[in-house]
């Protein structure tokens, strides 16, 4: 397929069979149209080459930052404070252009920022959110483990308290952006068995993130295998209000609830009940060459 026809295929047709536009506010339509235009002019013309090379399109990060949409419906701290519907529309447009770019954006804007906004102390919010809203600081969300994909509540990664530090040990799998993020939120069990979110900054000794290769989808994004070997973080790096797995679930629920139907579905495959993409991450890891021709089908599926 030639470049020209591929571009046309990816661009929005602006169809509205169910008259959804009428339900949106003027502001929501404005935000949606801005992101749609950005996708048509900036993302779609370049994304296929990144997808082929399985590389993250970092050149798009400052450009989308300039739209001031990162942080979605978070209020204050330099975040846009848009309506949850508008935040969902942003991700819907990005996912239409390229689902992998949507999750590159969402790892910071949705998963990491929502965790900090909902569960962080005032100091943690002041420290991290303003620079994440401008995407100068990128985030990552480390919940899934090699042996507990769908059953994430069974997570085994430990956070042992040692003086003024927590010492993290364990493994994570399929963690978006973890190879380059400035901060990864690692969900781990403390000495009392309660799950907390721990802010692990880039370069912390013992934290290793290795990109998973050979994916058949979401190729213009990176997911990583993480190993945590005696990773020391100060106690103040625990998200202040993350005291149990229920708090983690509240974050996941919040990132979903901003949806005009599918917000979370664009971000995290397990939630994609009607997705043409396999739900299991392991099924993405087979040699992608056999799947190559399906790229066109995925574009067709996401065309409306
Ligand atoms: C592109 C991508 C990005 C991701 N980003 C992140 C991220 O940023 N952070 C993060 O923490 N994780 C992330 N994940 C991980 C994702 O959440 C997991 O892939 C997901 O939880 C499913 O786990 P699994 O792949 O191990 O599948 P499995 O748990 O092995 O499931 C395989 C299949 O079995 C089914 N199944 C499992 N248990 C049952 C059961 N009890 N009964 C019936 N059926 C069952 C599942 O529905 C699925 O179809 C990402 C994954 C992908 C592919």
Word description of this protein:
38% of the residues lie in helices and 17% in strands. With 304 residues, it is an alpha/beta fold. The chain folds into 2 domains: 2-138 and 249-302, Butyryl-Coa Dehydrogenase, subunit A, domain 1; 139-242, Butyryl-CoA Dehydrogenase, subunit A, domain 2 (Beta Barrel), CATH 2.40.110.10. Strands 1, 2, 3, 4, 5, 6 and 7 form a 7-stranded mixed beta sheet that branches. It is globular. Bound molecules: flavin-adenine dinucleotide. Flavin-adenine dinucleotide binds at residues 103, 107, 111, 141-144, 149-150, 174-176, 218, 223, 268-270, 279-282, 284.
Task: Write the SSE topology.
Layout: H1 3-10, H2 26-53, H3 61-65, H4 84-97, H5 99-119, H6 122-133, E1 139-142, E2 158-162, E3 165-176, E4 183-190, E5 195-201, E6 207-211, E7 223-234, H7 245-257, H8 263-267, H9 294-301
Parallel strand pairs: 1-4, 2-4
Antiparallel strand pairs: 2-3, 3-7, 4-5, 6-7
Helix pairs in contact: 2-4, 4-5, 5-6, 5-7
Summarize this structure as a short list of keywords or feature phrases.
304 residues; alpha/beta; Butyryl-Coa Dehydrogenase, subunit A, domain 1; Butyryl-CoA Dehydrogenase, subunit A, domain 2; 2 domains; seven-stranded mixed beta sheet; binds flavin-adenine dinucleotide
The beta-strand count equals 7
Radius of gyration: 19 Å
Bound ligands? flavin-adenine dinucleotide
Task: Classify the helix fraction into a percent range.
Answer: 25-40%
CATH fold-type name of the largest domain: Butyryl-Coa Dehydrogenase, subunit A, domain 1
* C-alpha termini separation: 20 Å
The helix/strand class is: alpha/beta
**Which term fits the overall shape?**
globular
Give the biggest beta sheet.
Answer: 7 strands, mixed
SSE succession: HHHHHHEEEEEEEHHH
**How does CATH name the architecture of the largest domain?**
Orthogonal Bundle
- CATH level 4 superfamily of the largest domain: Acyl-CoA dehydrogenase/oxidase, N-terminal domain
The low-confidence parts are 259-279, 285-304
* Number of continuous helical runs: 9
Oligomeric category = single chain
Strand content: 15-25%
CATH classification class of the largest domain: Mainly Alpha
Number of structural units classed as domains: 2
Overall mean pLDDT: 85
């Amino acid at each position: 397929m030639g470049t020209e026809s591929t571009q046309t295929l990816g661009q929005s047709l602006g169809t509205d069979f169910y008259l959804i536009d009428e339900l949106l506010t003027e502001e929501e339509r404005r935000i949606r149209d801005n992101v749609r235009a950005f996708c048509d002019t900036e993302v779609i013309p370049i994304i296929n080459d990144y997808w082929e090379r399985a590389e993250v399109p970092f050149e798009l990060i400052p450009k989308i930052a300039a739209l001031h949409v990162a942080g979605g419906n978070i209020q204050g701290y330099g975040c846009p404070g848009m309506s949850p519907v508008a935040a969902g529309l942003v991700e819907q447009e990005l996912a239409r252009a390229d689902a992998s770019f949507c999750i590159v954006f969402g790892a910071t804007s949705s998963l990491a920022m929502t965790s900090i906004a909902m569960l962080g102390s005032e100091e943690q919010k002041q420290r991290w959110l303003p620079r994440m809203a401008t995407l100068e600081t990128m985030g990552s969300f480390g919940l899934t483990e090699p042996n507990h994909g769908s059953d994430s509540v069974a997570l085994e990664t430990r956070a042992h308290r040692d003086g003024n530090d927590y010492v993290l040990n364990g493994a994570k799998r399929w963690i978006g952006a973890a190879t380059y993020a400035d901060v990864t939120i690692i969900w781990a069990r403390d000495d009392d068995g309660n799950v907390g979110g721990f802010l692990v900054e880039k370069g912390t000794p013992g934290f290793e993130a290795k990109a998973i290769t050979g994916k058949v989808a979401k190729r213009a994004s990176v997911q990583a295998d993480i190993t945590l070997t005696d990773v020391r973080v100060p106690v103040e790096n625990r998200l202040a209000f993350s005291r149990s797995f229920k708090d983690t679930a509240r974050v996941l629920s919040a990132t979903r609830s901003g949806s005009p139907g599918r917000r979370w579905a664009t971000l995290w495959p397990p939630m994609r009940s009607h997705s043409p993409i396999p739900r299991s991450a392991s099924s993405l890891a087979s040699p992608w060459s056999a799947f190559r021709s399906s790229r066109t089908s995925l574009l067709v599926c996401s065309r409306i």
